[in-house]
Amino acid sequence: MRLTILGTMAFLAVACSVPASAQPGQSCEIRPRVDCAGGDLSGQALTEADLAGADLSNANLAGADLRGADFYHANLSGADLSNARLSGANLSRANLSGADLSGADLTDAQIRSADLSGANLSGADLARAELTYSGFDDATWTDGRSCAKDSVGECR
Q1: pTM score
Q2: What is the domain-level CATH number for residue 97?
Q3: What pLDDT is stored for residue 71 in this prediction?
Q4: Coil/strand/helix, residue 154
Q5: Which of 32, 36, 25 is nearest to 11 (CA)?
Q6: pLDDT tens per residue across span 35-52
Q7: Residue 124, CA distances (Å) to 26, 31, 32, 85, 154 in order
């Protein structure tokens, strides 16, 4: 892992396996609006990382430590966030459609107005998570049941 300080902004570059169109061994610079679609950040320690507006679609973030990270308006569609530590994270307005959040720790997470349609939340911990206006159409809820269409703010 490499931390580069530029003025008052810190950028974190981590090894990130990226799609075939990218250069082999290319790093994914952890910063707002970064494109790391399909990248492999599994098991990485990225606490309080600023990934607002980032494209992490189909990325592997399984088991990553993302406590307090900012994913506001990020694209995490199809991402593997299984067993990730997301307590206190901001996932408001994020696209989490089809994401695997099974076993993830989402305690105290802000997940307002997010799209979780088709997401897998089985075994996830949503204690004190803010879910206002988030959509759960066809999602698999924490207890394994399927959410109905038009499930907003909770699984129905």
Answers
A1: 0.85
A2: 2.160.20.80
A3: 98
A4: coil
A5: 32
A6: 999 999 999 999 999 999
A7: 32, 26, 26, 10, 14
